[in-house]
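Whiteboard transcription, Tuesday session. T.W. wrote the structure tokens on the left side:
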């Protein structure tokens, strides 16, 4: 069973919240977004908020990676530097919180 789990973890993409949840369930951490929410102070940090924000950033990433960052009409989708900074900060904070939950790494 452990070999199957390790193989699955090695090739699946863990970007969308449901996939992140699935991955953490495989290593024995159910309710990972609830645990992250518990240690993430401030506004917009409920379990639902964190998942919704992650979904938005993953969708935008997929537009860039799979659609050449263009609309169906061919027009370029523009991105403001603040959006990119906010995304990078969110992902960095999320990873720090995930590490804290699983490994006890201080934030």
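and on the right, the sequence the group agreed on:
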């Amino acid at each position: 069973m452990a070999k199957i789990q390790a193989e699955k973890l090695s090739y699946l993409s863990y970007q969308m919240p449901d996939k992140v949840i699935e991955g953490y369930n495989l290593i024995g951490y159910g309710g990972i977004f609830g645990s992250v929410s518990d240690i993430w102070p401030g506004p917009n940090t409920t379990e639902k908020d964190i998942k919704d924000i992650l979904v938005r950033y993953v969708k935008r990433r997929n537009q860039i990676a799979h659609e050449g960052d263009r609309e169906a009409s061919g027009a370029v989708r523009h991105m403001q530097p603040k959006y990119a900074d906010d995304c990078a900060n969110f992902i960095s904070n999320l990873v720090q919180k995930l590490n804290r939950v699983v490994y006890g790494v201080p934030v």
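Someone added at the bottom: The first helix runs from residue 2 to 11.
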